[in-house]
Amino acid sequence: MHGYFDGICLNFPLFKLDVDSFETQPSVDGRYKVNLKVTALTHESKDDVFGCLKDGSAPTEDPLVMTTFVHVENPQVFGHCLEWKSKQIQKIWDDAYF
Asked: What are residue 15's phi and psi, to 5 degrees?
C-alpha cells in the first residue's frame, strides 16, 4: 500500500487519505480511533487499492471512496500530516489530469 500511496511502484499515487473524524478519548491501548476516507484515483485503480483495506472498511455512495480507520497516539498530529500529504497528492492528480 505504501507504494500506491507515495507513487513508488508506479511513479504516481493511486490513492489519497483524508481524516473524516476522530474519537476524543483513547479506545485501544491508549490510542485514538481515526476514521479515514480512502479515495482512489480511477475506477481502474480502485480494485487494487480497496482490495488491500482491512476488515471493517466500508464503501460509500461514491464508488471511488471507501472508509476505514486506524488507531494513533496523537490524532491532531496525524491529521495535520495526512492533510499535507492529501493536498500534495491532489495537486499531482490535478496537474496530470486537469
From this structure: -155, 165
**Cα 72 to Cα 39: distance, rounded to the nearest angstrom:** 20
The three three-digit cell numbers of residue 88, written as one number: 500534495
Q: Give the count of domains, the chain.
A: 1
What single-letter DSSP state applies at residue 12?
S
Position 53, amino acid: L
Q: What is the pTM of this model?
A: 0.86
pLDDT digits (tens, 9 = 90+) for 11-60: 778 889 999 999 999 999 999 999 999 999 999 889 888 988 999 999 99
* Range(s) of the domain holding residue 80: 15-97
